[in-house]
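In full, the data:

***
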Amino acid sequence: MLLLTSKGAATVTGGGFITLAATLATMNGNSVATIFVAWWEGTLDAERARRIINREEPPVAIEG
């Protein structure tokens, strides 16, 4: 939605929503890319990933 201010400058309302949507899209894309690369390189533990997604096992950061 376009908003015309008293000074005559046009701004777009909902900019915060657009920023949030872009951030979520980037985060989702990075997640999918990470899983794909792990699968491609043969390092994806699909069973562990399933347990984490189903909240049967807590995710733990692996240092390395």
Notes: The chain is about 55% helix and 10% strand. The CA atoms of residues 51 and 57 lie 6 Å apart.
